[in-house]
Amino acid sequence: MIERIRPAALKPGDTVAVVAPAAAIDRDHLERGVNALAGCGYRVKVSGRALDRSGILAGSDRERASEMQQYFDDPDVKAIFAARGGYGCGRLLPLLDFDRIARKPKIFLGFSDATFLLNALVRLSRMVCFHGPMVAMDFARGLSQRSLDHLRRLLSGESGPFELEARESLHPGVAEGELIGGCLSVLVAMIGTPYAPDFEDKVLFLEDTGEKAYRIDRMLVHLKQAGALERVAGVAFGGMRSFDGSEQERRMMREFMIEQTVGFGCPVIAGIEAGHGTENLTIPLGARVRLDAESRRLAFLDSVVS
Predict the structure, then answer these.
(1) pLDDT digits (tens, 9 = 90+) for 211-220
(2) Which H/E stretch holds residue 287?
(3) Which of 95, 125, 198, 255 could form a disulfide with 102 if both were Cys (CB 3.0 to 4.6 A apart)?
């Protein structure tokens, strides 16, 4: 098993850099999110290019990658939070020096399109990374107190081992392994690239939003036919918000999730409060977990910061 690099814990007064690795950002949303983040007791350093625009993106690929690399190099920056997702993170992967990042590890937080970055950092920089709320989105809208408290305790190292509860068990069993995954549509887009996660004996976390049920099925079929689902130790579904919120779509989505994960002998749970359409509780990718389908628990077994 690869020995994961745990980034240094984040304390009050530490500097958090806010980067824009993906889609262009609304100024008002960014300001509200930055104010909320500062209210947590952190110093906030906002990317000088955060409001740049290049088509639908927050600046050119090279500019966005260069600034992210710069903040990993900056000794004054203790954590890097993504401002938003949308689209664009995958374009940065060939432009980042993952070995260099591994020599200067720090907390990286984001989700949705940032699934590209999270899984590449876990695999190529061997770091624990954090799937969780983004500044110009979740922070700007307002996090629940539980989500905010969980985030602060997790990143500060105060929480230690912890558990998240799922709403239901889809297939029985118990499994242990490192957690990988994130947004399903992004994860599928990584298959066949040098940045795709290693699925072998991992616990796979999946979430998504705004998709029709048949598209969720198509993506799960892709994971199955690519050999990913037969290699994982277990599967944990987070938020799976349908495009219209209808009961029919939700029911079909659940049926597809059961159908495409049956027959592998691995436990599967669903309804963890992480990802789109949930409280978006922060979860550390690259961390060792225990999935118990009977108790519907996903337990994080080790400290994730140093």
Answers:
(1) 999 999 999 9
(2) none
(3) 125
Is 159 in the active site? no
Q: What is the pTM of this model?
A: 0.96
Which stretches within 39-196 are classed as H helix? 61-73, 98-103, 115-124, 140-141, 145-156, 184-190
pLDDT digits (tens, 9 = 90+) for 263-290: 999 999 999 999 999 999 999 999 999 9
| Architecture per CATH, 15-156 | 3-Layer(aba) Sandwich (3.40)
**pLDDT (0 to 100) of residue 1:** 64
**Domain 162-300 in CATH 3.30.70.100:** no
The reported pLDDT for the residue numbered 3 is: 84
127 HSE (CA, 13 A, CB side): 26
> Within the chain, which residue ranges are assigned CATH 3.40.50.10740?
15-156
Q: 276 an active-site residue?
A: yes
Q: Which of 270, 174, 168, 162 is nearest to 216 (CA)?
A: 270
**Could you give the residue range(s) of every CATH 3.50.30.60 domain in the chain?**
162-300
Q: Which of 47, 63, 67, 112 is catalytic?
A: 112
**pLDDT score at 160:** 79
Among candidate residues 63, 44, 90, the one with its CA nearest the CA of residue 196:
90
274 burial level (CB within 10 Å; 0-12, 13-18, 19+): buried
Catalytic: which of 178, 207, 249, 273? Answer: 207
